[in-house]
Amino acid sequence: MRKKFIILRVHLPLKGYVNIFDMFFYLSKTLYFLLMPATLVAIGLLLGFFLRNARWKKISLLSAIALFFLFTNDFIINEIYLRWEVPPTAFADVPEGYDVGIVLTGIANLQKEPDDRVYFNKGADRIIHAIELYKRGKIRKILVSGGTGSLQRPDLTEANALLKVLQLFGVPEADIIIEKASRNTHENASYSAEILNDSFPNGRFLLITSAFHLRRAEACFEKVGVATDTFSTDFYTHPTSYTIDSMLLPNESAFDKWQTFIREILGIVAYKIAGYI
């Protein structure tokens, strides 16, 4: 009978850590709000409405209109993502023999009820593709890293939710590793590193997360001394389209793509300042 391999870790913050974390958390949230496409357009419209100087009123309104068409242009944001996202790797091109596939969370809605199932947001192929890699023999075990940012329900963690999904798909408990204390990508790397260094010294690891997020995630793992190969999932891009619809007509989904991209860039800047990457 195979030994169970589920590892649970609970971490208490170090003295002073919460203040530093909170500082960067609120700073990044504030900057993100101010730089959101909708916020920038709204600022331009409000300035155009309230300013009395005719020249600046015109500049503000024209800027708001220009930003609106920029942020709703699917062609522009798709081209940016095509250059930013880490390209996909064919399953056949992934070598066998990885000790652990590391799956980062951020793909499930933990607040939805009834809580007898997992409600997935965009990005569910992080866990689905990890299961396929496991079934194909590319990875021997799956480490799911991710807790909760909720102060009201600290018992609800994505790692536990995805544990149920893995078991539903037939992955045995002996091949599942759970890290449920982390609240961000930096902690994903730090807490996962403790598990990997303890249980898999000199192991081979495959990092599995969204294509837009993979650069920051890989840098975080490198910073804590864990070398990984990468497997990108959850793509926002589509083949370049030169149609009138794509290049000229406003597309509401482009707004969401811009917000995700801006948040990721701000995350990288904040992580560099904090020394996380």
Structure description:
With 277 residues, this protein is α/β, with parallel strands linked by helices. It is elongated. It folds into two domains: 94 residues, no CATH class; 145 residues, HUPs (Rossmann fold), CATH 3.40.50.620. It has ten helices and seven strands. 49% of the residues lie in helices and 12% in strands. The two termini are 42 Å apart.
Write the layout of secondary structure elements.
Layout: H1 17-35, H2 37-50, H3 54-71, H4 74-84, E1 98-104, E2 108-109, E3 119-120, H5 125-135, E4 139-145, H6 158-168, E5 176-179, H7 185-199, E6 205-210, H8 214-223, E7 229-233, H9 244-247, H10 252-274
Parallel strand pairs: 1-4, 1-6, 4-5, 6-7
Antiparallel strand pairs: 2-3
Brief write-up:
This protein has about 280 residues and is α/β, with parallel strands linked by helices. About 50% of the residues lie in helices and about 10% in strands. Strand 6 (about 205-210), helix 8 (about 215-225) and strand 7 form a beta-alpha-beta unit.
Summary keywords:
277 residues; alpha/beta; two-stranded antiparallel sheet; elongated
